[in-house]
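Why do we bother with a discrete structure alphabet at all? Because it lets us treat a fold like text: something you can write down, compare, and reason about line by line. To make this less abstract, here is a complete entry for ABC-2 type transport system permease protein. Read it the way you would read a sentence in a foreign language you are learning: slowly, and without expecting to understand everything at once.
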Amino acid sequence: MAAEWTKLWSVRSTWWTLLAAVLTMAATSAQLAIYARNANTDDDPANNPGVVGVGEIVAGSLELTQYVVLALGLFAITSEFTTGTIRTTLRCTPSRGRVLAAKAVVVGAVTFGLGLLLGTVGAVTARPVLGEWGRAPLGGTVADVVAAAAYLALIGVLALGLAAALRGAVLALTVLFALLMIVPLSLQEPDITVLTRIADAFPGVAGNHFLAGDTEPYPAAAGLLVLAAWTAAALALGRWALARRDA
């Protein structure tokens, strides 16, 4: 884990990713806050969301920001496949399961910490923009920020597992984009109950139910468990692929 921590922080791409994530979160939160404020002050009574909690803005902002954070999980292993340093890693630690587990712990810790920072940035950015149409109760806001961090940590480790199995950053990102957005939206679009229920089992939709604190179609805690199950399955797939193929 110490070696993986050092590798992660010793490359400039990590720092650029952190900066891009913060800027994306700030810009997206401000934009969503502006939309909410304008919706309350325009002349269309049908489009009036009322007072909005900053936690809702933070959760909405993650739909875009998560794709920046995913890069940390992807590059933690695809960069080693690209440069060939994975061979040195495996010579130092022949147990491939230990290598992947160490990467998962480091990626999970870093993305959780980054999630706390991003949630705070989103809340601090959105609150003044919302003005009288916003609310930020301390307890609720802290809970929303922690939930955002947990979501990003699981998504980051999910990305790591898929990247370990697929080896290519572009291919892994394409699969993640399909799992998190394209396939669920395609299933929800016809508004057919069976297809919508299938979409609810996908990681992105489950994560959204968790972040929103929904009670239907399942409790928020169940959404977290569904996302965690996808993450565990991705790690298992990555472990299986690492064991079967040469570096």
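What the structure line is telling us, in plain words: The chain has a mean pLDDT of 92. Strands lie at 52-53, 134-135.
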